[in-house]
Amino acid sequence: MSLNISEFKQVVSNFATGVVVITATTPDGPVGFTCQTFGSLSLEPLLAYFTAQTGGSSWPRIKGAESIGISILSQGQEQLAVQFAASGIDKFSGVGCNAGPGGAPLLDGALAHVEGTLQSVTTHGDHEIAVLEVTYATINKVNKVNTSESKPLLYFHGTFGLPA
Questions:
Q1: pLDDT computed for residue 163 by the predictor
Q2: Is the dihedral of CA 69, 143, 94, 36 positive or negative?
Q3: Do residues 46 and 134 touch, judged by C-beta distance below 8 A?
Q4: 25-39 per-position pLDDT tens digit
């Protein structure tokens, strides 16, 4: 039996993922992209990982940055996810952010932020897996209380959020 890409995409779309934006400051200015594959990898040492498409234009620029930021998006930040997934635009236009301790832009309103330095990159098919040594992690103070803003932005069946 042969499995095609379309069938595989339908199968994996049944797994809900969180949505993050990966960012960095480069000599040409800030750069970022939307990502659905992110997680904690190790507690000793503190490591996190994410994946990036090898053919994207943002990832090659981020790879050389001193510090990489990860903003874990909350419900209601779908527009940010769409904006940072687009190409050929100023992704930071109209976006509030503050530099983390290492200088990476961290997006306002996110549930939480992680910042770190790139430790390794391995290529697998059309994606690369990046491993970060985490140097900073914080929960957005607004989101420490149980409000609708403290819920994560999820991606499921090719759209944001879960079905009602």
A1: 76
A2: positive
A3: yes
A4: 999 999 999 999 999
